[in-house]
Amino acid sequence: MKNIVVINSSLKGKASSTLNITNAFLEGYRLVVDDAKIEYFHLTELNIQTCMDCEGCNTNTSRGCHFVDDMSYLLERYQAADLIIHNFSLNHNGLPSLLQTFIERMRPLRTFVIEDEMDGHVSVKSFYNRPADSKFVIISTCRSTNIEESYKAVNVRVDQNFNGKATKLFFPSTLYPYVNETISGIDFFKAIQWAGQDFAKDGEISKPVYEILYRFCPNTKQNIVIPADCANTYFQLDLNYEKLRLIGLGKLSPLKETYDASRLKLQNQILEIKFTDINESYQLILKSDELEIIPKGNEIPHGELKMCYQVFGELVMGKMDVFSAVKLGVLTYHGDIKILNALNNGLLYKPNKKSEDMSLLLSNGVNKDWVNHPLNHPIIAYIPWLLCLVIMGFNITLGLCIGLMASILTVLFKRLGDTTLLDKFNVLIFLITSGIVYMLSKIEMRPVNDIVIILSLVSSIFYGSSLFTKIPITAYIGYRDYYAALSSIEIYVKKHQVITFVLTTMLMVIPLVEMTVSFLHVNYSEIYIIASVVFTLLIIKWISVNYGKWMYSRVSKNRGHKLEDKTEHVKI
């Protein structure tokens, strides 16, 4: 049985397009050696420290490295392998950093022998201690068709490290369709399989197969040679410099993978992005099933973004949100605000920063993932109240006890650091209300109404006190609206200060409504209480939906922006 070790040094890890070539090579190899054992080592997933050049591997008796990491096991497998395949993509005409680190950490495998003796001096030669019959295959791709020039430095390095015995397969990247994949009816990957079969039989690739393979990588003096019909898709001619320049499809194409059409109800909208620093513009067709990117489109867009490319990169990587970019004046937008709203909430990329910022706010800087934990879902905060009010219709004491127990269990089951002020207030509210009810148990009370009044008064005191803290109480249950609106943490907190004030006012008004109705001897007082609650909830909903738009409009006007809601034909 043959042991094969694949060292994948591509910075893309398992997503490496070069790995497709390596896999095709191994498919052909296993057609001949069907029991070959293949081990993949993706260096992006391994913990390999950088060599410190301490020479410990040459001087200590164990001949090992003082680092204790994944390299120790990797070297064991490397020495035991019959075939070693190095897979990587060219990085600035040189080896990628992961492979460079790997080669430097191979020093414990070096052996020194006396090559010659002369006049009391010796000539010492070093080589890597590997099985005499082990084979090496180097598979690499680059973004150039000038293979000879691009791999000049790599060829020297490979010959030095593998004693000039490695089989080298260097090609233009197959990631782009402008690289020929079929020549004279022969599929590129089929030819790679033939190379694998040859290597399994004879330990080398036959000349006819080599000739076929290198028909797929014409060695040109130009950096990139492409069919003319591909130029408009992947490149554009800059008339100012009369040079071919790689443009935004390479920058924007990852958005096709993260595009989420469900974030925008309107379909087939056109968003134009203009990068002011590199003088490039693209139109994005926001379809129901896919994202289409057109360089320098001529259609009238429904929305237009202007920013420098660095700001765009920070948005995509989650280092900045749209509202902050507008506030800083580094992004401008004209058009339908619904598109910008969808963009801010994950239309083209995942708004990681919004989630992280909100988690740090609500957990007092303790937990970056607070909002994603199931026990922190807003519905959990409602459960004690729902249980209490439902069961109170049958038994007042039992309802209060169930509410108290549910609020205590919520605190106990939450992770350390996830417990919020709202959770603690709920426990205190039910505990104090239960105590008041117990003390007034000898006074005749209408079963539900009087208890609701007590709950309202106690709740208004605690919830109102949160207005004097860093985070108003409703912020803990309203954070999901934050992802559906143009907002920032600062605006979110201010909005919920208003909402908490309205909620506290409602809780104080309920007893007044009850006393007024009782004084006037009006029947069905519950209807007036319910009407007050519903009216307050509608006000809270309106504030939640429109506060962010109002603040965004203020910021935009200060920056000289013009936002127009094309659906309702009004200016926001």
| Major β-sheet profile | 5 strands, parallel
How much β-strand is present in the residues?
A: 15-25%
Helix count, DSSP H or I runs of 4 or more residues: 21
Shape: elongated
Using the CA coordinates, give the radius of gyration. Answer: 34 Å
pLDDT averaged over residues: 77
Count of domain modules: 3
Write a structural description.
This protein is α/β, with parallel strands linked by helices. It has three domains: 3-213, Flavodoxin domain (Rossmann fold, 3-Layer(aba) Sandwich); 247-349, Nonspecific Lipid-transfer Protein, Chain A (2-Layer Sandwich), CATH 3.30.1050.10; 354-558, no CATH class. The protein has helices at 18-32, 56-59, 71-80, 97-104, 147-150, 152-161, 188-202, 207-213, 228-234, 249-252, 255-258, 309-316, 322-328, 337-344, 352-362, 378-392, 396-413, 421-439, 449-465, 489-519, 525-558; strands at residues 3-8, 37-42, 83-89, 110-118, 121-128, 135-142, 167-172, 182-183, 186-187, 235-238, 243-246, 269-275, 280-286, 291-295, 303-307, 331-335, 564-565, 570-571. A five-stranded parallel β-sheet has the order 2-1-3-6-7, sandwiched between helices. A five-stranded mixed β-sheet has the order 14-13-12-15-16. It has a two-stranded antiparallel sheet with strand order 4-5. α16 packs antiparallel against α17 (396-413), α18 runs antiparallel to α19 and α19 (449-465) runs antiparallel to α20. The N and C termini lie far apart (71 Å). The model is unreliable at 236-247 and 559-572 (pLDDT under 50).
